[in-house]
Amino acid sequence: MSSRERILGRVRRALADVPDGAGPYEEAVARDYLREHGRRSVPETVDLLAENLADYRALVHRCADGQLSELLARLLSAHGSRTVVVPPGLPAQWLTAVEASVVQDLAASTAPELDEVDSVVTACAVAVAETGTIVLDGSPDQGRRRITLVPDHHICVVRVPDQVVSSVPEALERLDPVRPLTWISGPSATSDIELDRVEGVHGPRTLEVVLLGDS
């Protein structure tokens, strides 16, 4: 028996008790759950995002569009970053004041090479206020997943309020499921059986989120 036949056999056994004429899974599952918890204004939603990001130990900053380049320069300098990797579609004006050496996101870059880079700066696809989650989808201003998992310091810029939603259901409506989605809730962290928290295990040890607005 081939692997294909084994898999199909397991599928048939799993479906053996499904009645004839049953509707597709998408119709069988109820979708009457809450789309968001409570009603909030746009500023309140952004405040909730900032609060939950901070609760996950991300460092949250707010600035206007014209202040972003100087803020990024200060954050990189404070971290002691001499090199920073950026995706190819990141707006060039974001980096005009940055003094660190810019490393382009190249397909040929290896994990050891990226491990030598001090920081990474990206945009995001969407941010979820209720969970304090940033979602990347590999778009040109976010780059490949590798550049946000290997360097130890990640600065992520969220455009406010356009990229902020209240809940996960609202975020899913904006995302393309065929893209490589990375969901980030705070710095990379884990804990052992004694609940000792260790950061930087499978991603950046430090996550800084910039909420970029008009004022």
From TrEMBL:
Listed SUPFAM superfamilies: NagB/RpiA/CoA transferase-like
Span of domain LUD: 92-212
Tree of life domain: Bacteria
Classification via Pfam families: LUD_dom
InterPro entries: FTHF_cligase-like_sf (IPR024185), LUD_dom (IPR003741), NagB/RpiA_transferase-like (IPR037171)
Protein name in UniProt: LUD domain-containing protein
Species per Swiss-Prot/TrEMBL record: Streptomyces violaceorubidus
